Amino acid sequence: MITTTTPNIEGKNIEQYYGVISAEVIIGANFFKDILGGLRDFFGGRSGTYEKVLDEAKQNAMHELIQKAQTLGANAVVGIDLDFETVGANGSMLMVVATGTAVRIN
User: Fold this and answer.
1) Is the pTM of this model over 0.90?
2) How far is it, in rounded angstroms, from Cα 47 to Cα 71?
């Protein structure tokens, strides 16, 4: 399955458009991660804990997007956009929304 943020794939022709698809993933950062992230924010530097959570949520959303495309008969998803938002009480959860257009290419 080819996935890309571009509207087309160089050297490939889009034979059929299946439509816009989306996948949503909400993942919670537990209390321990919040404390570690808060300490990192206080002392400065990157928060590896939160980076792992972000990557996990993104990978899960992309996996779900690919599954939806395959169910439609697509072999590629073009025009992918990833949006990240915090939701829940005090922004305690992270939501990742992946959208794209499921297509069949040759």
Assistant:
1) no
2) 37
